[in-house]
Amino acid sequence: MENNNQTLTGFLLLGLFPPSRIGLFIFILIVIIFLMALFGNLSMFLLILLDVHLHTPMYFLLSQLSLMDLNYISTIVPKMASNYLFGNKSISFIECGVQSFFFLTLAGAEGLLLASMAYDRYLAICFPLHYPIRMSKKVCVLMITGSWIMGSINSCAHTVYALHIPYCRSRSINRFFCDVPAMLTLACMDTWVYEYTVFVSTTLLIAFPFIGIACSCGRVLHAICHMHSTERRKKAYSTCSTHLIVVTFYSEPFAYIYLCPRRLRSPSEAKILVVFYIILTPMLNPIIYILRNKEVMGALRRVIQRICSI
After folding, report:
1. Rounded to 5 degrees, what angle do the CA atoms 74, 32, 293 make?
2. Side by side, which strands form the sheet with 11-13?
3. Of 236, 234, 276, which is closest to residue 252 (Cα–Cα)?
4. Model confidence over 166-176: pLDDT tens digits?
5. Terminal Cα distance for the chain, rounded
6. How distant, in Å, are the alpha carbons of 115, 197, 221, 292, 308 from that of 248?
7. Which of 17, 11, 31, 189 is nearest to 100 (CA)?
8. pLDDT at res. 292
9. Which of 4, 14, 91 is nearest to 274 (CA)?
10. Are 143 and 116 in contact, with CB atoms under 8 Å apart?
11. Which residues lie below 8 Å from residue 273, measured CB to CB, with a gap of 6+?
12. Contact 69/281 with Cβ under 8 angstroms?
């Protein structure tokens, strides 16, 4: 009877904010970061859309990264803020499933998209003559579509399984959103097989792309060392280092949460790392790309001048 009631009524999200002034301060800080992430990613997406100089495969992929980050943070933070403001920690079973599906879809798709961006830079720097052929618009669209489809398939499988697990313990999830690893601790059945599938899918969608990105950056750095033009060398190094920073900020905390066994990490430690890749990374990505990219800064100036002239 208890199992059925808990399955029907949903879960309780313990949240991120302690009931004190510190909690209120953290809440205000998170809201500011959320608004900055929304503004930054929306601005980046619109900037690439409006400026013809940025209509290249590299910036088309970057616009999709901004779109993913925009949806990524919007899937989690509004519900978290609503729960804190109204003092309601509950989330229905259906809401939990929808939130988990979109989160896992965007997480998997972003990992593959970051690998596609690294491949684009690898071709542009190491094979500049073959770049227009190998990285055509069709190939670019296929990469983006493939990232979304793979992310969706992976997410659908995990979400359906997680929603069919019998939950017979406390239904309090020690997170501020429906995170599958945290939900598994509430199950009244042995979930080692499912935990293994989580490990495999994280390895395929996050760890392997990260290794591929690191290898491509190594090849790029080797190619940079043989460049005669100082300006080309600086531009290539800036592009590669920028992408590596973004990938590291995203992949490392995510891999630690989903690849590390539960017994080796504490719930509070996991909660802090989740904040890093869900809330901080979407805010940092547009800042990093704008500040370290002269073409984006130039496009920003052109768009601002165009708006002012109107």
Report:
1. 80
2. 90-91, 11-13, 172-173
3. 276
4. 887 668 888 88
5. 66
6. 12, 23, 17, 16, 37
7. 11
8. 67
9. 14
10. yes
11. 253, 256, 257
12. yes
Q: Which residue has the higher pLDDT, 171 or 212?
A: 212
How would you write the chain as a 3-class SS string?
Answer: CHHHHHHHHCEEECCCCCCCHHHHHHHHHHHHHHHHHHHHHHHHHHHHHHCHHHCCHHHHHHHHHHHHHHHHHHHHHHHHHHHHHHCCCEECHHHHHHHHHHHHHHHHHHHHHHHHHHHHHHHHHHCCCCHHHHCCHHHHHHHHHHHHHHHHHHHHHHHHHHHCCCECCCCEECCCCCCHHHHHCCECCCCHHHHHHHHHHHHHHHHHHHHHHHHHHHHHHHHHHCCCCHHHHHHHHHHHHHHHHHHHHHHHHHHHHHHCCHHHCCHHHHHHHHHHHHHHHHHHHHHHHHHCCHHHHHHHHHHHHHHHHC
Report pLDDT digits (tens) over 37-82.
999 999 899 989 888 888 889 899 999 999 999 998 999 999 888 8
In the predicted model, is pLDDT for residue 7 greater than 50? no
Query: Half-sphere exposure (CA, 13 Å, Cβ side) for 126?
Result: 17
Tally of CB atoms within 10 A around 190: 8
**pLDDT over 90 percentage in the chain:** 23
7: its two tokens: 């399955």
Q: Count other C-beta atoms under 10 Å from residue 3's C-beta.
A: 12
d(CA 187, CA 167): 4
Q: Give residue 277's identity as a one-letter amino acid code.
A: Y
Contacts of 262 (CB under 8 A, 6+ apart): 181, 185
For 15, 71, 167, 170, the CA distances from 185, given in Å and listed in that order, are: 16, 27, 9, 9
**pTM for the full predicted model:** 0.87
Burial class (CB in 10 A: 0-12, 13-18, 19+), 86: exposed
